[in-house]
Amino acid sequence: MTSADEGAVARRRPQTGARSHHETQGGRRLSGDERRRIAILALPTVGFALSITVVTTYVPVVVSEFVSSSAVIGVLIAIEGLLALVLPPLVGARSDSLRTRLGGRLPFLLAGTPLMALALVMLGVVGAFTGAVIGVTAFFAGYYLAYEPYRALYPDLVDDEAAGRAQSGQAVARGLGTAVAMVGGGVLLALGQAVPFVAAAIVVVLTTGAITFALLRRSGVPQQPPAAGARRAREAFGELWRTVRYHPPLRRYLVANALWEGGVGAIKTFVILWITVGLGLSLTAAAGVLGGAAVCILAGAALAGKLADRFGAARVMQFAAAGFGAPMVIPFLSREPALLVPAVPVIATCGGIVMALPYALLIPMMSASEHGLLSGFYSLSRGLGLMIGPLLAGAAIEILRAFGDPTGTQGYAAVWVVAGGLLIASIPLARRLQTPGP
Question: What pTM did the predictor assign?
Answer without folding.
Answer: 0.77
